Amino acid sequence: MAAAGASRAIRSWLERDLADTVARLCRSTVQVLGPGPRSGSGVVWGAGGVIVTNAHVASPPIRVILSDGRRLSGRLLARDRGCDLAAIELDADDLPPAIVGDSDRLRVGELVIATGHAHGLPVALTAGVIHAISRHGPTPAFIQADLRLAPGNSGGPLADARGSVVGINTMVTGGLACAVPSRVVQRFLAAVPPSVAAAR
Amino acid sequence: MNALLSLSNGLATAVEQVSSAVVAVNARPRLASTGVHWRSGVVVTSDHTVRADEDITITRSDGRTVPASLAGRDAGTDLAVLRVSDADFPTAALGDPLSLRVGHLVMAVGYGPRVSWGVVSAVGGRWRTGRGGDVDQFLRLDATLYPGFSGGPLIDAEGRVVGVNSSGLSRQLELAIPATTVTRVTDELLAKGRVSRGFLGVGLHAVPLPEPWGKRLAVATEVGLMVVSLQPDGPAGTAGVVLGDILVALDGAPVSTADDVQRIVSGHKVGATLGVTVLRAGMPTEMRIVVGERPARRR
User: Which of chain A's residues have a Cβ under 8 Å away from the Cβ of B141?
Assistant: First the structure.
């Protein structure tokens, strides 16, 4: 009986923790619209308030729909097609920031969640695990996750069980979700021209 | 502690624990498959991924590639067993597949390690594969078996190996061979190099029996199995069975499906004698067939 009670308690904690983590991540997930009919996703990257998304999603003129429904026009700060990343600035200083995690500390098998505007829907969640970490260099080119992504997820966050963003969902290959690691995002943001940041 | 985080850490630890016993099996062109270090010096993998009989190697989780030799293979359960002399690495911790219930979290592990997760989708009793293999328990997964995953372990949330995954048993379903069956087949392959299966050498087709014919039989049955193909020098052919005979009973038990026949035949050892009742031109005829051994599948 005690075991059944404990298992019920663990289940309810799991549900609560998952719901809390997802709710926090959803607040920081945005929809990114370009000139074409297709949309992507993005994430409010840390306290700086910059929106990070995929380069293949961020074509001006950019409009961003926040989780609270506000529609803002975005200014492209930087775009790197090599690592498929873009940084967007919005005219708002109350953006709910996502916690940024460390992709180098990921373990194979750990839980990950993705939020994004799959198929242009209101924010949608998928859950999975880290599939593989191929380390040819110090930081892998992509994180592979056993997780179902759909068109529209591009540019959205991949987060660990803490809700910390460890990658930017970028593409699907062989049924696997591929995300640009947060370490690569940090390097990309560090190279964003300081003049632009200062002008803010 | 956050329950979600502790589940996540638990899954990652489970993968870590099993991964040192997971190897890449290099026995086909291009894509390697996965193997499990089942017991010291013995690696289990999927039969359909072992295309070569010689020059097989395995790559351990520490990156070392060492030679392996084929101890035996069983197409029926899609299992192959390799012997490895360089075996100073951990063996898998085996779990009890009978404890699995629909909805349990499981993970499929490929060499690397690579992982997919999911749940036990369906559990059933003993079943027979399309190639005649006898499997103790039906295990269907809702998890993706990515290329190269065949032969790899199915693990529970604690990292215990409860089965071996195979994409070679069904085109539609993700299936696993339960650890109990793997151990049984491994023992037989190590001892004899093959799994022998009873064999009659007939092709059968179910036919309804005309009422007066059924009444002449000692067993109550309305359906018989007509012999529609026959190996002339096979066990049934040697015993005098001819095309057109209708098989109605084996060892006194009525048979109305090919599965009935397989179940009874596989319960007998090769070389055992089986009493057979056939209807020939409407008249019951008793015969005795010496159970033969199913020939190995040609590769």
Answer: none
**Are B107 and A109 inside 8 Å of each other by CB?**
yes
Question: Do residues A110 and A190 touch, judged by C-beta distance below 8 A?
Answer: no
Task: Tell me the shortest Cα–Cα distance from B2 to chain A, in angstroms.
Answer: 7
- Chain B CB within 8 Å of residue A6 CB: no
CATH classification of the domain holding B188: 2.40.10.120
How many domains would you assign to chain A?
1
In a domain, A168, yes or no: yes
Q: Which residues constitute the domain of residue A129?
A: 103-186
Closest CA to B101 of B118, B120, B117: B120
CATH number at A114 reads 2.40.10.10
- The reply to whether A102 touches chain B by the CB within 8 Å rule is no
Q: B111 and B253, same structural domain?
A: no
Q: What is the pTM of this model?
A: 0.84
Q: How many CB atoms lie within 10 A of CB A12?
A: 11
When CB atoms are compared, the residue of B4, B112, B113 closest to A111 is B4
Query: Could you report the per-residue pLDDT of A83-97, keeping only the tens digit for each?
Result: 999 999 999 989 999
Residue B43 has pLDDT above 60, yes or no: yes
Confirm or reject contact between A141 and chain B (CB < 8 A): no
Contact B115 A107 (CB under 8 A): no
CB count, 10 Å around CB of A20? 13
Gap between the Cα atoms of B250 and B288, Å rounded: 10
